[in-house]
Design goal:
The complex is a heterodimer of chains A (216) and B (261).
Chain A: H1 3-9, H2 11-45, H3 50-62, H4 65-72, H5 82-107, H6 111-119, H7 124-154, H8 167-175, H9 179-209
Chain B: E1 10-20, E2 26-36, E3 40-44, H1 51-58, E4 66-71, E5 74-75, H2 81-86, E6 88-91, H3 103-107, H4 109-113, H5 118-131, H6 148-160, E7 166-170, H7 178-195, E8 198-203, H8 206-212, E9 215-220, E10 223-228, H9 230-235, H10 239-247
Classes of the chains: A mainly alpha (216), B alpha/beta (261).
Chain lengths: 216, 261
Amino acid sequence: MNMFQFIAQNRTEVLELTLEHLWMVGISTLLAVMVGIPLGILITRWPALDKPVLGAANIIQTVPSLALFGFLLPVPWIGARAERLAILALTLYALLPLIRNTYAGIKGVDSSVIEAGRGMGMTDRQLLFQVQLPLALGVIIAGVRVATVISVGLATIAAAIGAGGLGEYIFRGLAMVNNQLILAGAVPAAALALLADVSLGWLENRLASNVVVPQQ
Amino acid sequence: MSADLSNNGLAIEFRNVSYRFGTGAELISDLNLQVRRTETLVLLGRSGSGKTTTLKLINALASPTSGEILVEGRPTTQWDPIRLRRGIGYVIQDAGLFPHFTVERNIALVPKIENWPPDRIHKRVMELLQLVGLDANLASRYPRELSGGQRQRVGVARALAADPPILLMDEPFGALDPITRAELQREFLSLQKRLEKTVVFVTHDLREALLLGTRIALMEAGKLVVALSPEEFVKSSDSMVKKYLDAFGSLPANNGTRGLA
């Protein structure tokens, strides 16, 4: 039985696992956005924090994913259900691109624009919401894009701790030495990653085209 | 910004002002300078002489290490910086327009954050476009769709939007081609005649200083060298002034100064 036949015959299960996969990626990316963007903003205004925060996010990124799942296992409430654990781990991994891109996006706004705004009597808050964030939006969305694509791939590992998702087929296929089964998990996961990449890339371009720096 | 009548016609006054950034060298040393109401004071000097810093001390983008700057008779340190800046127009070299705002939104910046009603803002924007010689249909354009000269006009319109009594201009025409530059300089003169703002104008261009200034303050290494009218300036025997005049070659004395233009 090849991969396509397998998917066709098990389409309800494939769909279920795909939705599970999307759920894990979606929730974790949302959580990472809610934490990472404010943190990125915070470290632009509190320069003493930028190195420690970016450093910590970097270190998290270097922990092998399987090990991170293991480390989080003893955490109360989180460790009680595989799905929660997977979402937390994915959130932690998604933080670095979000913090880094928010930080870089805001820092990259033309200083003469900021200076003009401040000189005209804009408050810090007005500068942030009317100038810095809108101008950094393209770069921030690029961070969301990277985080999402990484998450789609990483979420396949979550099946190892029983959190479900398309990784289920990959691990089952590994255990049964069945390449077609592995592909039945890997190909839809890759397709999801591509889809996320293309759609967020489109959004990024659209937002960036509104804020092109005047060329001279 | 309410005018303080007790300070005999001075809009801005520097009293023994020094400024250093962090623990670095002094960028401004013991500066004493007065700017009278409705005059155009030009801060002239080479790069790094402290002109721009002097300007930023006025709108509290920098605060003095010692001494004080009085704006409308009140030290800048006692002003709420936000209120102070909204009463002072600010024009910078490459205009500093917000690239994601249309021309209209750029000009409307201060009226908007001051919560003017929308119809009043719109009326004011149209008025200002006309004042700076821009076509009304440019209102919906983005800065990247304008020429350098048009952008700079928008920059001036934005600074004038809330009708501030004081205008700070930091090499506003520095990045323009010579023809556009001359055009904007002429318009600035006629605008200034009508509006009677107190203007502090930074430039390193002696011709521009002689053309636009009612007084010229020459700065060098963070210190004020002299503050003279254009007519006095070209005749001055001060060695620093002479050096500056020489650098600009055979500038016809008295020709092109404001009084005779």
